Amino acid sequence: MHLGAEHKTKHLCDYKKCERHVRPFFRQDHFRDHLRIYHKEDLLRRGTKADREWWASRAPRPIFKGWWRCSRCLVRVDLDANGFVCDACGSQCEKERQRYRLETPKPSVLPGEKGKGKGQSPRLHHPIASSGSSVRKRAASS
Ligand SMILES: [Zn+2]
Ligand SMILES: [Zn+2]
What we know:
Blueprint lengths: L27 H10 L14 H5 L4 H4 L2 E3 L6 E3 H4 L12 H9 L28 H10 L1
Antiparallel strand pairs: 1-2
The structure holds zinc ion (2 copies).
């Protein structure tokens, strides 16, 4: 009898120091919970309203490092390259998460940040994606 265990989708945590970076999740919802609970990412729970307290409890790094995580496929989406539209599945970042990234002043020093001399300027000019296609077109032509 053939057991197709290897064909199940595995989800490896993309935090290199995390023990789940080598020990995969076999269920996406478990991975999502892990990212939300363990790494304190801003993955909204469907049907639950995120209040100020919840936002305050989120880790700053996933919010201010120039990416967001698609809540459908759980991949990191680079803001410079793709804006607020996931290039893997085409879903759009939740408005609330877009707003939080655009409107919250970035802390001057992020915890665990090493001084990387990359000449970082505050990146506040990502337009809120109103329609995914125009953002993608613009990104492609530049
Ligand atoms: Zn992890
Ligand atoms: Zn996606």
